[in-house]
Hints:
Elements: E1 2-9, E2 13-20, H1 24-40, E3 45-54, H2 60-66, E4 75-81, H3 85-95, E5 101-105, H4 108-122
Parallel strand pairs: 2-3, 3-4, 4-5
Antiparallel strand pairs: 1-2
Amino acid sequence: MSYTLTWHESNKALWLTLSGDYLPEEAKEVNRLILEELDQSQSSLLLLIDATRMNRSYRFSDIRAVQTFMDHLKLKSIYVAADDRLVKLSMMIIFNLSRASLYICDNVEKALVSMQRQLLSLQ
Length: 123
C-alpha cells in the first residue's frame, strides 16, 4: 500500500491518496498525520480521500477502530472518490458515524467540484 497526504488548498483542504491494500498499520499512521494537521489548524478543514486506486478492503472494523481523526472538532467534511462499489461500501462503513459530513463520489473530479463549492461557501 502506498498513501500520500498533501494539501489541496493550504490550511483549508487535505488530500489523501490511497493505492493498493489499506492495512490497519497504515491507517494508524495516516490517522496520526491527519490529527497533527487538524490539531495545528486555526480553522476547520476538509479532507478529500482519493480511493480510486485502492484495493478492496476486508478489514473494515480494524481500519475503522484506528481512524479517530473523523471525530475531530476541526474536520468539517470528508469527500471520498471511489469507483469500485465495495471500496465505496468500505468507506461508508469506516466513516458512517463520523462527526464530519461524508460525501461519496464516483471519481476525483466530482469530489473536487463538491469540495470546491464548500470551500467557497466557507470564505
